[in-house]
Amino acid sequence: MSLEExxxxxxSPYDDSVFKEKISTxxxxxxxxxxxxxxxxxxxxxxxxxxxxxxxxxxxxxHQIMYPFLExxxxxxxxxxxxxxxxxxxxxxxxxxxxxxxxIVLDASFLNLAFLRRNMPTSEVAIGNNLxxxxxxxxxxxxxxxxIVKRNTGIREALLAAKQLSAYxxxxxxxxxxxxxxxxxxxxxxxxxxxxxxxxxxxLALGGEGTFMEKLKEINLMPVSISYEFDPxxxxxxxxxxxxxxxxxxxxxxxxxxxxxxxxxxxFKGRVHVQMTPRINNKLDELGDFRDNNISAKYVCSLIxxxxxxxxxxxxxxxxxxxxxxRTNRFRRKYTDRQLEDIKEYFEGQLQKVxxxxxxxxxxxxxxxxxxTMYANPLKNKLKTLLGGME
Length: 391
Known about the structure:
This protein has helices at 19-27, 30-39, 45-52, 58-77, 106-117, 135-143, 155-174, 198-204, 212-218, 234-246, 254-266, 281-287, 293-310, 316-326, 337-352, 361-386, and strands at residues 81-84, 96-99, 124-128, 146-149, 180-183, 221-228, 272-276. The protein is α/β, with parallel strands linked by helices and 391 residues long. The protein has 2 domains: 89-228 and 277-310, no CATH class; 231-267 and 314-391, no CATH class. It is globular and about 60 Å long. It starts with 18 loop residues before the first helix and ends in a 5-residue tail after the last helix.
């Protein structure tokens, strides 16, 4: 596969040949300046911009700019980021890291931070164009090794976009020798019950050579499980559940999406664990090809889901949420009395942030149930996988 066969210029990360030009445009953008001042002390901004002006390649940008920024973010908004399963990573192989989707920005960022800490190569990152609401955001992510997933297109355009995206992923792994990150589904699972979309797997099998399974083997799918102790957006998701319940046609605004990104990025997440699992090539061999690609995709999704569910890190809040939701003491030994009270207080505090007028007691109970469900689902899915379908 070659660049002559496919034109990736509108979706690929910026090439080093245009880096200086794109950095120059970025640092002149008032929106970028405003965003930088929001996340760091104003007196540090001139030095940052001075350093940015000297950078002319992706490697230096990630190591000199993004690495310290992500460390600062991790230090101020988490209780630590841990990485497991490194033994499954072969430095001579490029992977498609496919993960559950908890945070719009940070899932891939924290995975790459974990890699940077260990001097492992970072991955290119798939990002939906629905998030690229300003030109400076587009420039920033493409400078930072991100490639664009075209969404909200017509049916014909969607198929062309899917073919281009799949071709780029195969090209990136086989020709550029870059690993890539992609979420297992479009958008986050609001109830934190993570399941891979069959459409995503079918898209990945559009590019490459051979049968459906051979095309997937070509890109070395490695499921990765990401666990956050606290989801800063939990109350916003509970609010959205209620607004949809009141009005099934409710749609979030662009402002809502930006606020979710900001909240997820800058609020406290507690402990974060990233767990790598073996690539699924051997299991794809065991499955073999089915006559129907729909059946093939379904089985592949199941393999990915099982690997992710099995590898969740379960925190006290997940056990507490399960017991409160189901009115049981099944996991009482997993948390102390103090943890129980602190977690109940946390849930109450998060609900108090919901800014909807005239919420009834019944609606408040509904939002609490939704929030408990979000935290209980990772545990429930892990139990199902470990116990072969039993809860």
